[in-house]
Amino acid sequence: MTFTITVLFPNEPDAKYNRDYYVSHHMPLIKERWAKYGVQDWSVTDFGPGADGAQPLYTFGSVVWWESKEGVEKAFASSEVAEIMSDVPNFSNKQPIFLFGSQVDTTN
């Protein structure tokens, strides 16, 4: 079963983000370094106001698809985790929020 990590970046007044760096450097770095642990693909979404015009709680986020939860656990225990996490200040002054979960199969 596919396992996902969703990463969200808070929409706070003092937040500073370099989304271009995130998309062009950080996400490819994750795929390159952690492919051996089962990273399959990733996407990034910019969040806009809701239907009522309210500002979103998060500015943008990403989803990383993995082959398995065990692969995620191995990746986060690997030596590569230091390089990946130390890259965060290059695109964000806020700590991201991580959500880990199994993808629900919706086929009948």
Provide keyphrases for this structure:
108 residues
Average pLDDT reading: 95
Query: Given the helix and strand composition, which structural class is it?
Result: alpha+beta
Helix content: 25-40%
Distance N terminus to C terminus?
A: 15 Å
Number of strands: 4
| Basic shape | globular
Spans of at least 5 consecutive residues whose pLDDT stays below 50 are none
For the biggest sheet, the summary is: 4 strands, antiparallel
Q: Largest beta sheet: what is the strand line-up? A: 2-3-1-4
The proportion of residues in beta strands is 25-35%
String of helices and strands: EHEEHHE
Radius of gyration: 15 Å
Number of helices: 3
Account of the 3D structure:
The protein contains 3 helices and 4 strands, in the order E-H-E-E-H-H-E. It is α+β, with helices and mostly antiparallel strands and 108 residues long. The longest helix has 16 residues, at 19-34. The two termini are 15 Å apart. The model has no long low-confidence stretch (mean pLDDT 95). This is Dimeric alpha-beta barrel. Belongs to the tpcK family. GO terms for molecular function: oxidoreductase activity. It comes from Penicillium hordei.
Topology:
Blueprint: E1 3-10, H1 19-34, E2 39-46, E3 58-66, H2 69-76, H3 80-86, E4 97-102
Task: Offer a concise description of the structure.
The chain is α+β, with helices and mostly antiparallel strands.
